[in-house]
Amino acid sequence: MNQSAYAAAGVDIEAGDRAVELMKASVARTRRPEVLGGLGGFAGFFDASALKGYRHPVLASSTDGVGTKVAIAQAMDKHDTIGFDLIGMLVDDLVVSGAEPLFVTDYIATGKVVPERIAAIVSGIADACVAAGCSLVGGETAEHPGLLGPDEYDIAGATTGVVEKDSILGAHLVEVGDAVIAMKASGLHSNGYSLVRHVLLTEAGWSLDKHVDELGRTLGEELLEPTKVYALDVLDLISKVTVHAMSHITGGGLANNLARVIPDGMAAVLDRSSWTPPAIFQVVQQVGGVSQADIDATLNMGVGMVAILPQDQVPAAMAALQARGVWSWQLGVIEAAEGEGSARLV
C-alpha cells in the first residue's frame, strides 16, 4: 500500500513526521547527561554506566495512563497540561520506593494526528519530566482512524528509576508510633474522573464553562488542574530525614492506598479533622449525593502523597517540604492492630 492510499485510509504519515519535528525542542529540554542519541530512533538509550556509582543498584519501573481526564482536555481543546497528569502518575508511583526516576517513554493514540495538538501534549509531558528530573527518551504516536474520533486521543507511558537496595522504602520499615505526614494535592489529580464526569456533567448537566462560586473559577479550569509532581520534593525529603514508607494517593483513595505500605499487625489511624478537603470534593459529594464511604474510596480528598516516618523527624520533614513549597501536616499515627495492615479515617 503506497502512502497516498494509506492517507486515504485515514493515516497521515506526513502529519506524523511534522508532529515529531514540532516536539523535538520539547524533548531536548528533558535531556539528562546519561541519554544517548536523539529523537527518531527505534529505541531510546540511557547510559547504564551511570549506575556504577551505586553499591547495589535496583531498577524500579512503573507504567500508567491518565484515564478519562483526557476527555476534559479534549472538550476544552487545551492539551499542554495533561502531560503533568501522565508524568505524575508514573514517577510518583515509582519514587515512593525511594527510587530516582531516570527516564520516561510515552504513547499517544489518536484518531487523527494533528501535529500542533500532539506537540502540545508532548510539551506538557516534557515540562513535567523537567519538574521530575527525568528524561523523555522516546515514545510513539499512533493514528487509529475508525477506532478513535478525529479529536480523540489517549496517552500512557512508562518510567524507569534506580534505588540502592538497602535504601528501598516500604512496609518492612514501618514501626508502631510512626507519624503519618500528608502532602497537599493540587486538586483531583488524575483519578476518579469517571465518577466526577458522571456526577457533574451527565447527571447535573453542568457545562465545563460554568463558573462555580465554590471553586472560584469555571468547572473546566478546576477539572483540568494539572497533577502535582512530587518526585523531586520526595527525593529531597528522603535525603534530609529518615523516612520509612510512602504512599502515592491515586485511584482507590487515601486509606486504600496507604494500607498498601502498612505491615500486618499495624494500622494507620488518620485524623479526618486535621484538614479540610478542597471545595471540588465537597461539590462532587453534595451535587451527586455521593456517600462519604464512596468518595473516600474513589478520590484523593486533597491528599496527594503521604510519608510515614519517626515522630521525632516530623518538624524537620515539614520544614523541608515547606522550603520546597509543599504544604504538609500530620495526618495520623501508626498504631498496633490485629490482622492485616490497614488504614482508617476517624
UniProtKB/TrEMBL annotation:
The answer to whether the entry has keyword Iron-sulfur is no
Per UniProt, subcellular location reads as: Cytoplasm
Task: Give the CC-aspect GO terms.
Answer: cytosol
For this UniProt record, the keywords arranged alphabetically read as follows: ATP-binding, Cytoplasm, Ligase, Nucleotide-binding, Purine biosynthesis
The PurM-like N-terminal domain sits at: 58-163
Metabolic or biological pathway: Purine metabolism; IMP biosynthesis via de novo pathway; 5-amino-1-(5-phospho-D-ribosyl)imidazole from N(2)-formyl-N(1)-(5-phospho-D-ribosyl)glycinamide: step 2/2
Q: Which InterPro entries match?
A: PurM-like_C_dom, PurM-like_C_sf, PurM-like_N, PurM-like_N_sf, PurM_cligase
Residues forming the PurM-like C-terminal domain are 175-339
Sorted alphabetically, the Gene Ontology BP terms of this entry are: 'de novo' IMP biosynthetic process; adenine biosynthetic process
Please tell me which top-level EC class this enzyme sits in: ligase
Keyword check for Ligase: yes
As for family, the record states: Belongs to the AIR synthase family.
Protein name, entry field: Phosphoribosylformylglycinamidine cyclo-ligase
Species the sequence originates in: Tessaracoccus aquimaris
